C-alpha cells in the first residue's frame, strides 16, 4: 500500500466507513464501561450484551474493515471496485441499519430486529457481492485471493444464519434449532469471515509494513487448508452434537494459528526495517491471542464450561485477535490514506509534513498496554466469575480504546475530513 493506483476508489468511499467505525468505537468504549460497572456480564446473552457485541462487530469492525477492503482490494488485486456508486450509497443503508439493529437489540424489540436485521443483511450482501464481482476480474493469483474469496462467502453465510435466527425469534420457524443456528452464526462470522480476511490481508500487509523480502511461503496453503478444514469440522460438530468433531476442528484451528504465527516469525526474520513499530508488534501479539483462544476453547469444551465461560472466550477472541489486529493495521492504513489525500500531490513541490508527523506513534504504547492489561483482567473476570476483575478490566479497556479513538481523530481531523469527503463525492 505504498502508493495509490489508478484503480483506487474515491477517497470518500473507504473514509466514510473508517470514520464511522472509529466514532462507534468511542461509543462502544462508553457502553462497555457502563456494562462493566453496572452489570458486569453476569448473564450470557443479555440483550444489552448482544447489542454491545454487535456495536463492536458490525458498527466498529465491519465498518473499518469494509473501508479497508474497498481500498486494499484495488491495490492488492489491481482492479477497480465494481459499481463504486452503489458501494457509496450502500454506506447510508448500512449506517442506518446498524444503528437501528443496535437499538432493537438493546430493547429486544423483535419487530425492529426483523426490519433492521433485514436492512443490514441486504447491505452486507451488496458489499460482499460487489467485492466478489470485483475480484472475479482480477488476474492476480495466490493464497490472498482464496482467503478474501472465502471470507466473503463466510460473511454472506454468517448473515444468512443471523437473519434465520431473527425470523425464528419473530415467527418461531425452526426455533428448535436456535442454538445450532446461533453457534454456526458465531463460528462463520468470527472464524470464517474475520479470521480468513485478517490472515489473507496480513500476507500482504505484514511484509509491507516490516519491509520483509525473501521469506518462505511454503506453509501458507497448509494454514489455509487447516483453517477451512477446522471450520467445516466445527460446523459439523455443532449440528451433529459431536464432541469429537468439535475437538478435532479446534485442534485444526490451533494448528492453523501456529502455522500463521510461524509465517509471521519468518517475515520478521527477513525484514529490512530494523525496529518494529509498536502497532505491528501488537499484530503479532494478537496472533498469539488467537492461538490462546482456541486452546482455551478446547479446555472449556473438555471441562464442560457454562455459557458465561463461552462468552468470556468469544469476547477474548474478538477483542484479543480481531480488534487488536485491526487497531494495529489502522495505525498504518488511516495515516496513509489521509496523508495521500492531503499532501500526496504537493509532496516534492512544497514543504509538507511527513506521515509520521500526523500523530505521536509513541503514545500507541499506552493504547496497546492499557488495552492488553484490560483484556486480561476482563477475560479472567468473565471466565472465573470474579466481577471485580471484570469491572477493572472493562475500565482499562475503555481508557485504552478512548486513547486510540482520540489519536485516530487527531489524524482524521473531522472538520477538514467532512469537507474533503463531500467535495470528493
Ligand atoms: C460479521 C458480523 C457479526 C459477528 C462477528 C457476530 C457475532 C455474534 C456473536 C458473538 C453472537 C453471540 C452473542 C454475544 O456474544 O453477545 C451473536 C449473536 C447474534 N447475532 Fe450476530 N454477529 C454478526 C452479524 C450479525 C448480523 C448482521 C445480524 C443481523 C442480521 C446478527 C444477529 C444476531 C442475533 C439475532 C444473535 C442472537 C442473539 C441472542 O439469541 O441472544 N449478527 N452474533
From TrEMBL:
<feature type="transmembrane region" description="Helical">
    <location>
        <begin position="282"/>
        <end position="302"/>
    </location>
</feature>
<protein>
    <recommendedName>
        <fullName>Permease</fullName>
    </recommendedName>
</protein>
<keyword id="KW-0472">Membrane</keyword>
<feature type="transmembrane region" description="Helical">
    <location>
        <begin position="186"/>
        <end position="209"/>
    </location>
</feature>
<keyword id="KW-0812">Transmembrane</keyword>
<feature type="transmembrane region" description="Helical">
    <location>
        <begin position="244"/>
        <end position="262"/>
    </location>
</feature>
<feature type="transmembrane region" description="Helical">
    <location>
        <begin position="314"/>
        <end position="339"/>
    </location>
</feature>
<feature type="transmembrane region" description="Helical">
    <location>
        <begin position="115"/>
        <end position="135"/>
    </location>
</feature>
<feature type="transmembrane region" description="Helical">
    <location>
        <begin position="91"/>
        <end position="109"/>
    </location>
</feature>
<feature type="transmembrane region" description="Helical">
    <location>
        <begin position="393"/>
        <end position="412"/>
    </location>
</feature>
<feature type="transmembrane region" description="Helical">
    <location>
        <begin position="147"/>
        <end position="166"/>
    </location>
</feature>
<feature type="transmembrane region" description="Helical">
    <location>
        <begin position="58"/>
        <end position="79"/>
    </location>
</feature>
<feature type="transmembrane region" description="Helical">
    <location>
        <begin position="366"/>
        <end position="387"/>
    </location>
</feature>
<feature type="transmembrane region" description="Helical">
    <location>
        <begin position="221"/>
        <end position="238"/>
    </location>
</feature>
<keyword id="KW-1133">Transmembrane helix</keyword>
